[in-house]
Specification:
3 strands; globular; 79 residues
């Protein structure tokens, strides 16, 4: 049981864009995904990715795991 209970209904299904996903943005993505927000855009210092329907948490995790320093490395065939 969590020590604090919050009503995340106001975030559920909202469209979000995360800037700086390689640094602190990844924390925001984790919590927003947990609250069922739709992450439709992510960016880093060099690029912006947009997915009209929403990135899955797995897709965002994969992007973070294969990053190069503070730059996302991506292959559009796998996104």
């Amino acid at each position: 049981m969590r020590c604090c209970q919050y009503d995340y209904g106001f975030i559920k299904y909202k469209c979000t864009v995360i800037q700086g996903v390689v640094n602190m943005g990844v924390v925001a993505v984790f919590y927003l995904s947990e609250m069922r927000a739709k992450v439709v855009g992510i960016s880093d210092i060099a690029s912006v990715l947009f997915h009209e329907e929403s990135f899955t948490f797995k897709e965002i995790t994969n992007l973070f795991l294969v990053k190069s320093g503070n730059i996302l490395v991506y292959n559009l065939k796998h996104i």
